[in-house]
């Protein structure tokens, strides 16, 4: 488990999802207590663990949820919030075909999309509400709700693990909290 408390491993995991042209400003290890994401995709089909492009294909909604505690990395760039798993975890997926309704934001599938990659990157402008409260032992509870209804219930610990693998944890945690608080005003 100590490998999750490695700044190098964290940066590698977060950079996989950082959009082109963006740079990681801060990243930390955090605990996730509950997450929920729902994304609509068009021109695709579902195959085992992924969505594949299919011209004139289906419109599919993927709902991805987890209700138990697990470890995540939380990173922030100038314009994006990135949340990714520290290790491989299982989620509840509900995948269903829907009618191609107007007014719903849809993602056109042009390449294979792994289900595990859904709900990892959000534009900071898509954050609807972020509540940050002090918790026990110097930690902070952080509940983030996106405009599309996705949400994350996170806990930012005081320390980045034992052994010194995350030497800038306190600095990065302060920067992430400051940035999230600014977005919430």
What does this structure look like?
- The protein is mainly beta.
- Helix content is 13%, strand content 44%.
- Strands 1, 2, 3, 4, 5, 6, 7, 8, 9, 10, 11 and 12 form a 12-stranded mixed sheet that branches.
- The N and C termini lie far apart (37 Å).
Range of helix content: 10-25%
Low-confidence stretches: none
Through-space gap between termini: 37 Å
Shape: globular
Number of helices: 2
Q: Which strand-content bin applies to the residues?
A: 35-45%
What's the mean pLDDT score? 91
How does the major sheet shape up? Answer: 12 strands, mixed
Structural class: mainly beta
Written as H for each helix and E for each strand, in order along the chain, the element string is HEEEEEEEEEEEEH
Report Rg.
17 Å
* Beta strands, count: 12
Observed structural traits:
185 residues, mainly beta, twelve-stranded mixed beta sheet, 2 helices, 13% helix
Brief synopsis:
By secondary structure, this protein is mainly β. It is 13% helix and 44% strand.
Spell out the blueprint of helices and strands.
Layout: H1 7-15, E1 26-47, E2 50-53, E3 58-66, E4 70-76, E5 80-85, E6 92-97, E7 107-108, E8 113-114, E9 121-123, E10 127-134, E11 140-146, E12 151-156, H2 169-183
Parallel strand pairs: 1-7
Antiparallel strand pairs: 1-2, 1-3, 1-4, 1-12, 2-8, 3-6, 4-5, 5-9, 10-11, 11-12
